[in-house]
Amino acid sequence: MKSAKEKMLAGEQYRSADKELLEMRNNARRITRLYKMLGLADIRLLTQELLMEILQLL
């Protein structure tokens, strides 16, 4: 049986309240809040962190 994440990525119907997807959304919100608070000098570091997390999802 496919996970909700696998279904989502395949374009199939999925349960959006799935624990893994909720954790992913919360993490994305956390990173976005941090990004908005940073000055230009720190944006590069956070962007690298975000890209690393995206690569882990693939």
From TrEMBL:
Pfam families linked: Mac (PF12464)
UniProt cross-references to InterPro entries, sorted A to Z: Mac_dom (IPR024688)
Domain Maltose/galactoside acetyltransferase: 7-55
Any GO molecular function: acetyltransferase activity
Key words of the record: Transferase
Family listed: Belongs to the transferase hexapeptide repeat family.
Protein's recorded name: Maltose/galactoside acetyltransferase domain-containing protein
Organism encoding this protein: Oceanobacillus arenosus
